[in-house]
Specification:
This protein is mainly beta. The chain is built from 2 helices and 6 strands, in the order αββββββα. It has helices at 2-8, 92-98, and strands spanning 10-20, 27-43, 56-68, 71-77, 82-85, 88-89. It has a 6-stranded antiparallel β-sheet with strand order 1-2-3-4-5-6.
Length: 100
């Protein structure tokens, strides 16, 4: 199983609610975190029948995108040299210097 996870990568989607209390009032916003990663190490611990144990894994992440309340916060795509923060390409000057 670990060989398959290493070879093909795992697309993962996390959807939850984010509470920001750094402003004067507590606000709650939905967020979506999407990542694609290859599993490098998997520790299943002491699994027993009928239990739902936590599983620890070390991942090699190649793609990550965080969206809060419909707004793209950050996107990192290593194979395609993409690094966007709040919609701005942080690698634009670097890619321009390389001619890509």
């Amino acid at each position: 199983l670990l060989d398959l996870l290493e070879a093909f990568g795992i697309p993962m989607l996390g959807v939850d609610d984010y509470e920001a209390d750094d402003i004067m009032a507590v606000s709650s916003k939905p967020y979506v975190a999407l990542l694609k990663a290859a599993c490098m190490e998997l520790n299943t611990g002491a699994m027993k029948m009928g239990e739902n144990p936590g599983i620890e894994a070390k991942l090699n992440v190649s793609y990550y995108k965080l969206t809060i309340a419909g707004e793209d916060i950050v996107e990192v795509d290593l194979p395609n040299a993409v690094y966007l923060v709040a919609g701005k390409d942080k690698l634009a000057a670097f890619k321009g210097n390389l001619g890509i």
